[in-house]
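2024-03-11 09:14:02 INFO queue: dequeued item Chorismate mutase, len=101
2024-03-11 09:14:02 INFO validating residues
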Amino acid sequence: MSSIGIGTTDTTTATGAHTDEAAVLIGGARERIDALDDRIIGLVQERMAVSAVIQEARITSGGRRVNLSRETAVLGHYRDALGKPGTALAMTLLELCRGRV
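2024-03-11 09:14:37 INFO prediction written
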């Protein structure tokens, strides 16, 4: 017979915490992360829309859809702010914002 769950509440089991106090803290922090994730998703969608406007203006004026020097600057900005993982994040954002070919 397993002792998992004995002496713990559903909250501690769900959070992986070993005390009710830690479970409450983790639960509140997870709610905050969920709210932040919703805001981040909204900002990414807004960035995609603004990027589409820029690309349309560039193409309409005879330019290319993508401006590589601008993308390089964005990559550098994220790398400087967040380190190497920032570069990967920026690459994902740029890919999302390039639109469909």
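2024-03-11 09:14:37 INFO annotate: Helices lie at 10-15, 20-60, 68-82, 84-97.
2024-03-11 09:14:38 INFO item closed
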